[in-house]
Amino acid sequence: MSEAQRSALNALLFRTGDQSRDIVLVLATNRPGDLDAAITDRIDEVIEFPLPGEEERFQLLKLYLNNYMLKDDDKSSPWSTLLKKQPKKIHVRDISDDLLRDAARKIDGFSGREIAKLMASVQAAVYGSPDCILNPQLFSEVVEYKIAEHQQRMKLASEAAA
């Protein structure tokens, strides 16, 4: 633990040692097992937010598809177009709800953050393609790659815990 981390932990422990009306502390983590016992001992209430179900994963895929690839940013002023390079326009072809639902089924176990990162990877793959077109084949390739990456990460985490 670095000196800065130790100082932060000591300050937290000092402030949370007694009841106080002046301080409310909210902790959020995807990795509760990594929390120090001195921290978890001071948590009065725990609220679990489970991983998204299939319908939530589908809705998140649609949301990020819209935010990362379909949405036009028309908020730019004429000056901003002169001063900064505009990203290439992404053309989305044949990405159906059925394709997104199939992907939502396949990414069981992904957190909301992992789904956001998956769709950012899809966007990066599209920008890396010569024609800047998102088609079902490219989408499926990225999904399969991210599933394999997720499985490898889970395997490493379980080996580290053992």
TrEMBL record:
GO cellular component: mitochondrion
Gene Ontology MF term list: ATP binding; ATP hydrolysis activity; zinc ion binding
Origin superkingdom: Eukaryota
Record field: transmembrane: none
Pfam family, one: AAA
Keyword Membrane: no
Gene3D superfamilies (alphabetical): 1.10.8.60, P-loop containing nucleotide triphosphate hydrolases
Keyword check for Amino-acid biosynthesis: no
Occurrences of domain ATPase AAA-type core (ranges): 3-51
Keywords: ATP-binding, Nucleotide-binding
SUPFAM superfamilies: P-loop containing nucleoside triphosphate hydrolases
A GO biological-process term: mitochondrion organization
Family: Belongs to the AAA ATPase family.
Protein name, as recorded: ATPase AAA-type core domain-containing protein
Protein source organism: Aegilops tauschii subsp. strangulata
Taxonomic path: Eukaryota, Viridiplantae, Streptophyta, Embryophyta, Tracheophyta
